């Protein structure tokens, strides 16, 4: 199973989206799977970091809303999905016809609902990482918000979306996980101060912080300033540091951030994803808000007494920053409280929990084989399945064998089993083909119902049929009273065209055209 990550990094948006995706990519990689980053990443250093991690990297010249973005992303992922899977063909005779399992991660505020919907309509499993609930609607298999305020948000999303909300899902890179058992010492007077204001810091807030620390005038203080690969203010910072009475170290594009946080007695940070790294490491922190997207998180951290929030950087004077720093430097009781409260927010299991959710939502399609006869017979005779069928009579084994062998071998039929990531069957779908039209019927395994599989099976199988044949339209016939099935077809993109009579039963005809999935 392959993971595609679609996240960008530049001087405007910073590097945080890419960096937290690296954490999830590492967890994926630890399972022996392939990861590809698709990114408009302007930092060569960050590109090198991605490649050194062992991930594939595809550079995009322009990001969404540039049309090329979505077109290129869909092309890369769907080409992978449709490649023959040739793993262990001798032990699994039908695996060459399986659909390759891929997931796509979107992390960025510029990915619109239409962008998300196009990915889901293509049958690509989608994980969206969000912070603000700023969109009118979210289209995703899984929606992740790792922030402290996330459980209070009222997301508007697809009915089958799995919501992962809260700091238990914080994504931490593997270099942090080595510090799970780290025991922080709280000195009577703080000496070591870490300044980390994002990977870009376009407004050069680091310079204001340096000037604020200079006002303290304590030669015993040692300050380490970690600036990211997209920071363009290095020379200005060096010039200011040359005049400083304190001991400053300017660290560019660091790879040992956990060590720096373990060293620090106090941190001055932006209100982005770094807050959760500092929390995991138990670093008492002062927050400066660098953008609107950081405001809510920073306010929650302040209200929960996890960090000291100084508000928006532009409204906070260097004198106030200096005053708050001096106060915390001297007050070990408050620093100890901040450290203990922050450590309670996350235990480093976030990536594992997200991976488990992905595992539960993943599935593939393969051709039905003779070995599936009995399984499909049991599914066919399930009580709910018979109730939704036009004939409610129990199907005998002999009848089933005759039907199965006939249908399975017909050239004008496509018959698939849907399986989850653990290779457990979760449903079946069949297409009867007539020229450029096809009629679909499907069912979800009794133990797998109400997990969103119906819509996913329909979309993935329809996409596969349209891609591999000259079929232009798929029709479905559903009992008028069968509201759950009507809803599933509707959510998968089918639309009602007319009422019909099937075997004396009032029914609804619904269709899906090939152009509906483009």
Features:
alpha/beta, 35% helix, 20 strands, Aminopeptidase, 518 residues
Description:
A 7-stranded parallel β-sheet has the order 3-2-1-4-5-6-7, sandwiched between helices. A 7-stranded mixed β-sheet has the order 14-15-16-17-18-20-19, sandwiched between helices. It has a 6-stranded parallel β-sheet with strand order 10-9-8-11-12-13, sandwiched between helices. By secondary structure, it is an alpha/beta fold. The longest helix is centred in the C-terminal third of the chain and has 16 residues, at 453-468. Strand 12 (285-289), helix 10 and strand 13 form a beta-alpha-beta unit. The model is unreliable at 85-99 (pLDDT under 50). It folds into 3 domains: 2-171, Rossmann fold (3-Layer(aba) Sandwich), CATH 3.40.50; 176-343, Glycogen Phosphorylase B (Rossmann fold), CATH 3.40.50; 362-517, 3-Layer(aba) Sandwich (Aminopeptidase), CATH 3.40.630.30. Helix content is 35%, strand content 23%. The relative contact order is 0.10. It has helices at residues 16-29, 44-52, 67-81, 113-121, 174-177, 205-216, 234-241, 257-263, 274-281, 295-303, 318-330, 332-343, 350-361, 373-380, 383-388, 397-408, 453-468, 483-491, and strands spanning 2-7, 35-39, 56-59, 102-107, 126-129, 142-145, 162-165, 192-196, 222-227, 247-252, 266-270, 285-289, 308-312, 363-367, 413-420, 425-434, 437-444, 473-479, 495-502, 505-513. The chain is built from 18 helices and 20 strands. Helix 1 (16-29) crosses helix 13 (350-361).
